[in-house]
């Protein structure tokens, strides 16, 4: 594997293994080189979906949203969908309904032949996208996360609990009315029902995708049982919406997991792609990059 530092050196003029001077690559050439290398390793179509939230946390459009469809449409230009898809995800999550649109579109193109690759983090709605894959390729450094939605950065379960605490307290202590009016006035009308609907939608979508795609070869009863075990942990208050579920926890929950370390060549290829994108976010102020192995890309800055 080319390490992060070794990839960084490729951006500058350097000596190759034979001592000859080699001109430095551009960031675009670096990404395309390693995406192409991964494609050569698997023979499958590659789409890398990368958010720059770890490097530029305050930029707009870091999340999964409806504008991403343009990027996926661009990345399917010229690809042979018969060769399946490896979707590389590095994202903090975002809109469940935007994720739904992406899942429907990709499965119309590739059927069930979609594998999600998680080099580091695919959280929240990113985890929901992973639920729509036939399998998830993870390494020891990889993680998924809870899928309970957030509203303004506040987990839905916390908002729901606050409303339920208010009701219970008012039933027993009517004098607390003024306090709760102040506390709940920051939320719009009918917000409690919006939050409950959001929790249910995330569970319904992820459950549907697990049964249909990841466990589609099993009997309906067995597939539903496996999905329910996963959702019992994913869609609840886990103490923090930012909880990291590593590869061993994901296997314990019942996801169909492939271990990145089981194939050294594949591991090297995947992590080299990851390093190429993280270097890009270090050097340039992009919010998001969606790019395929042919070099077709969509940038949000």
Write the SSE topology.
Elements: H1 4-9, E1 14-15, E2 21-22, H2 27-42, E3 45-51, H3 68-75, E4 85-90, H4 96-110, E5 114-118, E6 121-122, H5 125-131, E7 135-138, E8 143-144, E9 150-151, E10 154-155, H6 156-172, H7 177-184, H8 191-214, H9 220-234, E11 245-246, H10 247-253, E12 257-259, H11 264-283, E13 288-292, E14 297-300
Parallel strand pairs: 3-4, 4-5, 5-7, 6-8, 7-12
Antiparallel strand pairs: 1-2, 3-13, 8-11, 9-10, 13-14
Helix pairs in contact: 2-11, 4-5, 5-8, 6-8, 8-9
Key traits:
301 residues; alpha/beta; 2-enoyl-CoA Hydratase, Chain A, domain 1; three-stranded mixed beta sheet; 11 helices; 48% helix; globular
Written overview of the protein:
This protein is of the alpha/beta class. The chain has one domain (4-300): 2-enoyl-CoA Hydratase, Chain A, domain 1. Helices cover 48% and strands 16% of the residues. It has eleven helices and 14 strands. The strands form four sheets. Strands 12-7-5-4-3-13-14 form a seven-stranded mixed sheet, sandwiched between helices. It has a three-stranded mixed sheet with strand order 6-8-11. Strands 1-2 form a two-stranded antiparallel ribbon. Strand 4, helix 4 (96-110) and strand 5 (114-118) form a beta-alpha-beta unit. Helix 5 (125-131) runs parallel beside helix 8. The mean pLDDT is 91.
């Amino acid at each position: 594997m080319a390490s992060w530092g070794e990839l960084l050196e490729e951006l500058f003029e350097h000596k190759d293994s034979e001592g000859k001077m080699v001109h430095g690559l551009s960031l675009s050439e670096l990404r395309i080189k390693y995406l192409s290398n991964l494609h050569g390793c698997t023979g499958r179509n590659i789409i890398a979906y990368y958010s720059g939230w770890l490097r530029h946390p305050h930029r707009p459009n870091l999340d999964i949203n409806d504008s991403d469809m343009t990027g996926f449409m661009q990345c399917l230009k010229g690809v042979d969908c018969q060769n399946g898809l490896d979707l590389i995800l590095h994202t903090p999550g975002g809109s469940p309904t935007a994720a739904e649109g992406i899942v429907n579109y990709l499965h119309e193109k590739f059927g069930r032949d979609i594998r999600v690759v998680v080099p580091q983090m695919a959280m929240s709605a990113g985890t929901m996208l992973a639920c729509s894959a036939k399998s998830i390729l993870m390494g020891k450094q990889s993680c998924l996360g809870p899928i309970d939605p957030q509203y303004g950065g506040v987990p839905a379960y916390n908002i729901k609990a606050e409303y339920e605490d208010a009701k219970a307290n008012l039933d027993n202590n009517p004098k607390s009315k003024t306090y709760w009016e102040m506390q709940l006035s920051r939320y719009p009308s009918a917000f409690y029902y919006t939050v409950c609907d959001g929790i249910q939608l995330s569970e319904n979508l992820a459950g549907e995708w697990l049964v249909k795609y990841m466990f589609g070869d099993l009997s309906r009863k067995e597939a539903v049982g496996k999905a329910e075990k996963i959702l019992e942990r994913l869609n609840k208050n886990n103490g923090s919406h930012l909880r990291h579920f590593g590869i061993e926890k994901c296997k314990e929950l019942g996801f169909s997991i492939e271990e990145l370390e089981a194939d050294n060549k594949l591991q090297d290829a995947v992590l080299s792609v990851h390093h190429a994108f993280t270097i890009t976010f270090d050097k340039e102020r992009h919010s998001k990059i969606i790019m395929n192995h042919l070099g077709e890309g969509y940038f949000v800055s």
